[in-house]
Amino acid sequence: MPRVTKATMAASSASVEGVIGPLGSCLTKLGFEVYPLKVGWYNSVLPPSFHLPYPDDALAVVVLSTPAMFEQAFLPFLEHSSIQKPSDPIDQCVRHCVSTAVSQSFPELKVDVRFDYELLPSRKPKFLAQTAAHVSGAAFYYQQSDVADQPWAERKMFGVCVHPSFGGWFAIRALLVFEDVTVGSELVRPDPPDCVASRGDRIKLLEAFNFHWQDWSYRDIVPGRQTYSERQREYFSTPPAQRLALLRSWGLLPKEEAQPDLNPHEQNQANGHG
Ligand code: B12
């Protein structure tokens, strides 16, 4: 396992590769992707109430789960770890994978690890996952304002990110901020691939995400290189309260595991973080 210390970080003049390399080598094989960004790119598109409290040139990394995460990380995690009540099993797996990768690769660095489901005391999300994915170049965030002559009158439409390889078959899981790592002009802000370019397709995407998200058609707005397996689809289409029973029926949990309390995102939607 490659380890990065403050000393090696200084020697490599805090290279982005010095962070992305070790993180990627831990997390890619588990079905995650990692994308670097500068805190300033994120803060510059958000109002102060959502800002990360770090300098503009601090390095951050956004972590996505791809369709492979379910088979490569989640199912093995269930076999080797015991699920802790009350939190969601996928959240526990992601936390385990990301925290292990960070502590093993960067034992001496201060890293602020924020997960998609975590809230601040103000009840705001700890980071806006879609904004982070967009400014890192990982996945274009299609928002209402990206549609000219909107057909929805005054209605608020939630935006959605589309990944160039996985369409909507992915999730945005975590943001890591490397407080000790300052990045200079070597990191250039990439434009995310605009894979839903026409007004008509953007309308179709936002309507699918807002009005029919349960049928998952928004995920197929562009053809994905890989989508969720049958088993993964069955898991995510099962209401969260019944997922432990499903895992038990697959023989992946001992019989006596109790039901989890659900996080607010899941309570509202009864759907989970698929
Ligand atoms: C709260 C929440 C919900 C709430 C409210 C939704 C919302 N968007 O507000 C509810 C419960 C309704 C919900 C539902 C769902 N959600 Co939800 N949800 C979240 C959560 C936790 C926070 C979103 C939030 O509060 N945003 C705050 C608002 C104000 O942000 P905003 O609208 O983006 O506005 C900001 C930007 O516009 C930015 N901005 C301004 N100008 C510019 C310019 C640029 C260029 C950029 C980039 C940004 C930018 O400034 C604004 C803030 O001032 C995120 C995870 C996370 N931590 O971010 C997941 C998340 C958005 N949800 C997700 C999903 C998939 C869903 C569901 C399909 C259910 C599911 N889990 O399968 C449904 C579908 C939505 C629907 N039709 O109801 C995914 C979306 C993935 C994607 N591909 O985009 C996320 C990212 C979770 C994840 N782990 O991947 N969700």
Describe this protein's structure.
This protein has 274 residues and is of the alpha+beta class. The protein has one domain (6-266). It has helices spanning 6-11, 16-27, 39-44, 69-80, 89-105, 129-136, 199-211, 230-237, 243-249, 264-269, and strands at residues 32-38, 58-65, 111-115, 140-142, 160-162, 171-182. The strands form two sheets. The chain has a four-stranded antiparallel sheet, sandwiched between helices. Helix 4 (69-80) crosses helix 5 (89-105). The two termini are 29 Å apart.
Write the layout of secondary structure elements.
Layout: H1 6-11, H2 16-27, E1 32-38, H3 39-44, E2 58-65, H4 69-80, H5 89-105, E3 111-115, H6 129-136, E4 140-142, E5 160-162, E6 171-182, H7 199-211, H8 230-237, H9 243-249, H10 264-269
Antiparallel strand pairs: 1-2, 2-6, 3-6, 4-5
Helix pairs in contact: 2-5, 4-5
The structure holds cobalamin.
Cobalamin (B12) binds next to helix 6, strand 5, strand 6, helix 7 and helix 10.
